[in-house]
Design a protein that fits this description.
This protein is α/β, with parallel strands linked by helices and 139 residues long. The protein folds into two domains: 63 residues, Signal recognition particle alu RNA binding heterodimer, srp9/1, CATH 3.30.720; 52 residues, Signal recognition particle alu RNA binding heterodimer, srp9/1 (2-Layer Sandwich), CATH 3.30.720.110. It contains two helices and eight strands; from the N terminus they run E-H-E-E-E-E-H-E-E-E. The strands form two sheets. A four-stranded mixed sheet has the order 1-4-3-2, covered by helices on one side. Strands 5-8-7-6 form a four-stranded mixed sheet, with helices on one face. A hairpin with a 5-residue loop joins strand 7 and strand 8. The longest helix has 12 residues.
Length: 139
């Protein structure tokens, strides 16, 4: 069994995927627009047929999904979860944190903690909360 996360960006899925591609090296697996649905009845569900009906993208070993859905949200409200990124080392953590912070809001700047050499929390420009941690050394 596998649990995967679907992020509903309320009309901003394509921009979010582009951001994560640049910032985090995301790779698009599939991007299906409403107008391209194999089901003709689905092609008119969204007011904008160019919006994303379903997309999957990979960041590292994790697959995330997104949809613009049929909601008309100016800014999605992501609450009750945080996506965690494990960086290879301090330099990687600084690069990832800076990329996610661009246009976002830092909740906790990167700093040394008792569990890792660097940890920080940021909400990106799309409202998605992230924690960046340097991966623990294996013993």
């Amino acid at each position: 069994m596998q649990v995967e996360t679907i992020l509903a960006f309320g009309g901003h899925s394509e921009a979010a995927i582009q951001f994560y591609t640049t910032a985090l090296g995301a790779e698009v697996i599939i991007m299906l627009r409403w107008k391209d649905s194999p089901d003709p009845a689905m092609r008119t569900v969204s007011a904008d047929p160019d919006k994303i009906m379903h997309a999957s993208f990979r960041i590292g070993n994790t697959i995330l999904m997104t949809t613009d859905g049929i909601e008309n949200l100016d800014q999605p409200d992501f609450k009750g979860f945080t996506l965690n990124l494990e960086a290879r080392d301090d330099a990687d953590a600084q690069r990832l944190f800076a990329a996610l912070s661009d246009g976002g809001k830092v909740q906790m700047p990167l700093a040394k903690t008792f569990w890792t050499s660097l940890s920080g929390m940021v909400t990106d420009r799309f409202g998605v909360p992230w924690m960046v941690n340097v991966a623990a050394e294996e013993k």
